């Protein structure tokens, strides 16, 4: 079982990060921690060195903050990715967020930065982990252009079933589902129709816990796997096996 997307470098975990990771180790094979800023990229790299073989890092720049990022900051993000190509298992999280970013010119800026990361992933043949919210169809149209990106991951997918079908048709694109599955009817309906071969599991910790007050943590990815098994009427072992093997194949871990 793998938590393919979380942020345990957040300060929310400063007091008990080791215990959180220990609880994850008891239940999971691996954890992928996604960088979201230049500082965070360095923090997730350090975490992956401290827990070598268990934690793997990805370097990115969160789309919501990318709208206001300077060219220099983005340039640094690109340079860090190139410098650490062998350390990171993917580029991300990067993407587009139309829920939080509503201004048209800022959306354009966000898209330009996103395509910059796509070009990098294409050039260096790295998988890409995307945060896409309320513009999934547009994102699919954009990523079609990049033939040399080995794998695309829509982290915490919440788009339409129609777009999900287009994603499945790409054959090298995946949708990741979080612990949100336990309470989101929209995500439950999607899981029913999406083939397990295109599904990954994640927590997005510290976000997306069962209740708003709670802090999520990687060990809770178990709940997402259980829910998928329940919805698809399959046994937990099979869901675990297929989703884990999808992740191992994408991230080469
Ligand atoms: Zn995230």
UniProtKB/TrEMBL annotation:
Pfam families: TatD_DNase. PANTHER family: D-AMINOACYL-TRNA DEACYLASE. GO terms for molecular function: DNA nuclease activity; hydrolase activity, acting on ester bonds; metal ion binding. It comes from Methanobrevibacter gottschalkii DSM 11977. This is TatD DNase family protein. A divalent metal cation 1 binds at residues 5, 7, 93, 204. InterPro entries: DNase_TatD-rel_CS, Metal_Hydrolase, TatD-like, TatD/YcfH-like. SUPFAM superfamilies: Metallo-dependent hydrolases. Keywords: Hydrolase, Metal-binding. The lineage of its organism: Archaea, Methanobacteriati, Methanobacteriota, Methanomada group, Methanobacteria. It comes from the Archaea. A divalent metal cation 2 binds at residues 131, 155.
